[in-house]
Structure prediction request, 290 residues.
Amino acid sequence: MGEMGGVLDIKTKPQVRMQRIRGAARLSLAHLDGKTRLGRLYQEGAAKIRLPRTHNGATLDAVLINTSGGLTGGDDMRWSIDVGNGASTVVTTQACEKVYRAASDTARVGVDINLHAGAVLSWLPQETILFDRSALSRQLTVNLAPDAGLLVAEPLIIGRQAMGETVRQAVFRDRWRIYRSDRLLHAEDTRLEGDIQAVLSRNTTANNAIALATVVLVHRDAADLVDPVRRMLGPDAGASAVQSSAGNRLVVRMVAPSGFELRRQLVPVIDLCNRKLTGARQGLPKLWTI
Prediction:
């Protein structure tokens, strides 16, 4: 996905210093006695991590929580996850991340993930919801060992249709960089700016859809899932396998007219990919099914 739209026009006003949230959390995991276990946990500000008990075998579930209840201009959240040799984890969020109107500045979210030898991680946050005149800049950086596996799914909803919300002006920038052994494996840059309705109405972008998602599975047998995934998708979605010397991956993109329709397609796709990566017992994080 590439550059779209213009620049958000926020009227200049006398700047009032407002309270902004800061959050940083670091999680490290290790594989011990046949299970993935907590190594270290650091939490600061509005960023919290919880590790619920599950019956998913050796895989550990982690839940990221923004205790402020959402993001607005000037907020800053940082997440860091280190998965040790042979460890396996599924990371999700407690709820959808709401990005509210920005009086000034931009909300920023940074995610850094390191996967060591034989480690696997599924990054499955619930939907990010953009409100009118919101501004968000997000960056995901992943470093993989040669035999590590990764699943990334990022759904985005631009205005909640059921609530009668319309996003007319906003800024959304999303940058992904995935490396294997210091070689670039996958790169994504998405930018939505300015008149959002005009951007979404284009046939080459979303054809009036307001819900979008991208899924990337890095796995040696990623190509095996192309046909099963395509059978799960609607007419405005697609899946392809990419093979390169840096690694094999499955890339899925979908757009939908509502958040409900997006989730209807997305859930079986990430369930299938997650089981492929972490094992048949894993399934979806419980918070995705509540």
